Please model this.
Amino acid sequence: MNRLITHLRHVDLAVPDYDRQREFYSGVWGLTEVANDSGISFLAAVGSPEQYIVRLRRADEKRLDLIAYGAATPADVDALAERLRAGGVRLIGEPGPLDTPGGGYGVRFFDIDGRTIEVSADVEDRNHRKLEEKESVPVRLSHVVVNTPNLDATRAWYEQHLDFALSDTLAGPHLGEIMHFMRCNPRHHSLAIAKGPHTSLHHISFEMRGIDEYMRGSGRGHQVGRQADLGAGSAPGGGQHLHVLPRPARQHRRVHHRAGGVGRGHVAPQRPRLLPPPGSATSGAPPPRWTRVIAKETFNEVDNGVFVAPPV
Model:
């Protein structure tokens, strides 16, 4: 399939505790601030060619500003915009030049749940390098997971309008289908859609060099008092996960490290599979920790940015 979208670029967040979040991402989490302008911070990963993978914006209320994906050429951006317009998708503006680090040409629009999505091409690559052994900082942005009350409808929207494909589905006899893993390239997923009571951000995932670097980065989070919701363990679709929630403010969306994601486990299967939730017993009974944390606490608050374009 000749997809118009090639990969995940960055996730942009609006946060009330801007200084704390900026310190967390550039310190504990190991990203590099490449630009800072009037309450907006652009943060890059050492191993990624993307100009930035997280953007923080100072705001009175927290919200997901946008999720940004890449396209191969400006012509692909124009073709996507025309397809979206013909399909009744609400564009926020016409395709045009981007005034962000690296420039480029892009278009913004709302998805079925009201999230702002950006697709861009011709963004200048950032100088990056291969990480060395024991460098416990993110290599790249791995994926983003969103909550939706319309699990199958949201999946169908991404398949129809953006050519995403289903890799796997998390499901259990007591919970039903609870998460779809979606891909826009051969990697297992850059987007996952989780079943929830309302539209919100579930978590953002960052890829580490390996297991040793993953454990070092996780330990750094514990040393500064960041409480892990789930701790280390294997996850469906490959990789090792750690969910981190800065406390006590609870203003921060969940983030996690993953390692081993570039190996066999992170390649999409030939056919979508039904996978049990992490930690599920062979009996199919939902484990208490999974039920309490994933099926409740990770819903987050209702997103205030639904069908409201970010100011920048």
Residues 222-234, 238-253, 261-265, 282-286 have pLDDT under 50 and may be disordered. The CA atoms of residues 93 and 108 lie 6 Å apart.
